[in-house]
């Protein structure tokens, strides 16, 4: 049943947010700490466990994979509701600190990622697999 | 007739949003293929169109939620809101290869810490150079350079003035937009190829919206790895901002 997959996803999502909220409260911050990340980890573990136990029929998987494939459309909708006007109206301080922050981080990313090469001797050009059949040639 | 159609669209907000976004993605796919010969990713164009529509919506309504403030497109707010966004992000974890994710565990944490501290220092320094030289304002604007959620949360915790808060949010928004649009352009320079590199990117670039859209426009397969790390970013920023980072700035300013 396809709903089993979506329900599994929903349970992981809710549990992750719940743990994130608990973590936030324990640490004394007023926000959720990594709830979505925790939910992702839960889903990864759930998948590994259920695959091993042979409890994951194709249709159940599709219930999750549909939402994974809906990711880009959701992101487009997210872009369409950004507060562009106040972002652009922030003036030079906002603009400069954002550009400088992104630039600094970009250099740090480039440096760290260049360090990866020597350690990894597998060819970089191997296409990476992903298991969502709904993405076959979608993007 | 037009009114009936408008009413139907407004009353079925989420369904309208699916149709509108589907159309945007279709148009961007065509633009990608016909005008750029596939060089610019269709998703990247779709996101830019989304941002442009957000600007248009913002100027039309004067609200803060872009296109979603127009009653006809209210469903966009639900479709692209935190709930469905996080639901879809979690779903992408289903594609994560656990071995790949584990390989990058430690570097992901390092990137996450750097991704909080570096933009904070840069943001606070620029705030200082523009005359915001008190510890509270410097911290709030620096926190805004981490993400646009960390900024106001930190500002509220340490008692920043509303104009500094607004500046801090604007800083975070501009950052998110630069990451969304800039990532596919800078992908080669950033070395965005492997799951590990995506996790480094997720930790350092921060902002979930920026990372998720930036990676989507670069390579859909990298999304779960970047998002996995980036989702811890806001929490970490909200943890460090009003505490450790604020005390550090206070010690330096005095």
TrEMBL record, chain A:
Annotated InterPro entries: Maln_transptMadL
Pfam families registered for this protein in UniProt: MadL
Spans traversing the lipid bilayer: 7-27, 33-50, 62-81, 93-112
Region feature Disordered, mapped onto this chain: 120-139
Keywords, ordered alphabetically: Membrane, Transmembrane, Transmembrane helix
Name used for this protein in its record: Malonate transporter subunit MadL
Lineage, highest ranks first: Bacteria, Pseudomonadati, Pseudomonadota, Betaproteobacteria, Burkholderiales
From TrEMBL, chain B:
Residue spans crossing the bilayer: 9-28, 40-58, 70-94, 106-128, 135-158, 164-186, 198-217, 223-249
Keyword annotations from UniProtKB, A to Z: Membrane, Transmembrane, Transmembrane helix
Matches recorded under InterPro entries: Mal/Na_symporter_MadM (IPR004691), Mal/Na_symporter_MadM_N (IPR018402)
Domain Malonate/sodium symporter MadM subunit N-terminal stretches: 7-252
Coiled-coil features, chain-numbered ranges: none
Classification via Pfam families: MadM
Protein name as annotated: Malonate transporter subunit MadM
Organism: Variovorax humicola
Organism lineage: Bacteria, Pseudomonadati, Pseudomonadota, Betaproteobacteria, Burkholderiales
Gene: madM
């Amino acid at each position: 049943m396809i709903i089993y997959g979506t329900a599994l996803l929903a349970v992981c999502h809710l549990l992750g947010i719940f743990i994130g909220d608990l973590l936030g409260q324990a640490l004394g911050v007023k926000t959720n700490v990594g709830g979505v990340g925790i939910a992702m980890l839960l889903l990864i573990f759930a998948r590994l466990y259920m695959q091993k136990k042979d409890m994951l029929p194709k249709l159940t998987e599709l219930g999750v994979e549909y939402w994974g494939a809906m990711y880009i459309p959701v992101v487009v909708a997210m872009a369409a509701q950004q507060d562009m006007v106040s972002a652009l109206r922030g003036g030079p301080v906002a603009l400069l600190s954002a550009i400088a922050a992104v630039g600094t981080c970009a250099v740090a990313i480039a440096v760290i990622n260049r360090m990866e090469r020597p350690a990894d001797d597998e060819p970089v050009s191997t296409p990476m697999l992903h298991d969502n059949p709904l993405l076959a040639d979608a993007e | 007739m037009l009114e009936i159609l408008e009413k139907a669209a407004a009353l079925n907000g989420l369904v309208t949003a699916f149709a509108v976004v589907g159309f945007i993605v279709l148009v961007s796919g065509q633009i990608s293929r016909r005008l750029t010969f596939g060089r610019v990713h269709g998703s990247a164009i779709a996101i830019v169109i989304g941002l442009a529509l957000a600007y248009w919506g913002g100027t039309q309504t004067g609200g803060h939620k872009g296109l979603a403030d127009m009653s006809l497109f209210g469903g966009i707010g639900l479709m692209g809101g935190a709930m469905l966004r996080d639901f879809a992000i979690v779903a992408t974890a289903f594609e994560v290869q656990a071995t790949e994710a584990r390989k990058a565990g430690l570097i992901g944490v390092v990137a996450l810490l750097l991704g909080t501290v570096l933009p904070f220092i840069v943001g606070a320094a620029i705030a200082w150079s523009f005359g915001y030289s008190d510890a509270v304002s410097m911290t709030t604007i620096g926190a805004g350079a981490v993400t646009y959620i960390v900024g106001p949360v930190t500002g509220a915790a340490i008692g920043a003035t509303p104009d500094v808060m607004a500046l801090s949010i604007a800083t975070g928004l501009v950052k998110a937009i630069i990451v969304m649009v800039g990532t596919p352009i800078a992908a080669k320079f950033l070395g965005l190829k492997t799951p590990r590199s995506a996790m480094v990117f997720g930790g350092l670039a921060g902002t979930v919206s920026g990372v998720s859209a930036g990676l989507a426009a670069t390579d859909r397969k990298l999304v779960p790895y970047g998002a996995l790390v980036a989702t811890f970013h806001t929490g970490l920023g909200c943890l460090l901002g009003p505490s450790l980072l604020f005390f550090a700035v206070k010690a330096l300013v005095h």
